[in-house]
Design goal:
The structure holds 2 protein chains of 2 kinds.
Chain A (H helix, E strand, L loop, with lengths): L3 E2 H21 L3 H26 L3 H31 L13
Chain B lengths: L1 H21 L3 H21 L3 H26 L11 H25 L5 E2 L9 H10 L2 H23 L4
The chains are: A mainly alpha, B mainly alpha.
């Protein structure tokens, strides 16, 4: 076999997405949780590009582009929220920011 | 050669991805995530997405991750404190994640009727010319709405970072 089928790229994307889910659920530092979200977005981007290859269309690239733009906006706002939380609470642990639970 | 390159970059991506999850210090996670993004950019090139590969390096690895590293530096974030989890979470977490992966892989294998082999250089429409033409004709309205989204994000970031919010 000299060529890789598209489904292997999709399975790699699934592996990366699962790692992102695991990081989102297992980690306690809010910055690492945020990076896990970025990992999931990257995995989805890979599957968009792989499907784009499968269908021989450029539309998947456009969607990847939009996902990147939204990820950039989300990172800016999310990190600003993290900064504000840290200023008020002096903690980065997600378990300790629980005032909406009580 | 294609198989070798795929496995090289796929293993880099998976190893760095595992590293993102298992490292306790945020800066190690951030550097591993940059590794994932670089490997993914190479995989995009293998899939013929030249423009997206360039944007991946410039925007993701260049801009977003620099923002992350900057915030980690600004907050002086250290390693996480060890907190004991419940036994249920400890024993059920990894099997559930593996179940999710197995389900995703099963669906992918089942629902892709005929996966085409990826030949490097066969799909050449992923350059900036084709992507730009589609972006500014068919997807012009979403593109403009995206600019509004970014404007709102800038305003939100400025407001959040400036005021004392309780």
């Amino acid at each position: 076999m000299s060529h890789v089928p598209v489904s292997w790229y999709l399975i790699l994307s699934a592996i990366l997405f699962t790692l992102g889910v695991a990081g989102f659920l297992f980690r306690r530092s809010v910055i690492t949780v945020f990076m896990s979200i970025e990992l999931m977005l990257n995995a989805v981007n890979l599957s968009f590009v792989a499907f784009s290859y499968q269908l021989k269309q450029v539309n998947g690239h456009i969607f990847t582009f939009f996902v990147m733009v939204v990820a950039a906006a989300e990172a800016a706002v999310g990190l600003a929220i993290i900064l504000t939380v840290f200023k008020n609470r002096a903690t980065l642990e997600v378990d300790e920011v629980d005032s909406m639970k009580h | 050669m294609d198989v070798f390159l795929f496995f090289l970059f796929a293993s880099i991506a998976v190893i760095c991805g595992i590293n993102v999850v298992v490292q306790t210090h945020p800066i190690s996670s951030a550097l591993s995530l940059i590794g994932v993004m670089g490997a993914l950019a190479a995989l995009y090139l293998l899939l013929g997405a030249e423009f997206i590969a360039a944007v991946q390096v410039v925007v993701y690895a260049g801009a977003i991750m620099v923002l992350f590293v900057f915030v980690i530096m600004l907050l002086n974030a250290g390693g996480e404190s060890k907190v004991s989890r419940s036994t249920l979470a400890r024993w059920l977490g990894i099997p559930l994640v593996i179940t999710l992966l197995a389900m995703l892989s099963y669906i992918i294998q089942r629902e892709i009727p005929k996966p085409v082999p990826v030949v490097f250089g066969e799909f050449t429409k992923g350059g900036a010319r084709e992507v730009g033409r589609l972006l500014f004709t068919e997807y012009l309205l979403p593109f403009e709405i995206t600019s509004v989204l970014i404007l709102i994000a800038i305003l939100g970031a400025v407001v959040l970072a400036r005021k004392e919010i309780d």
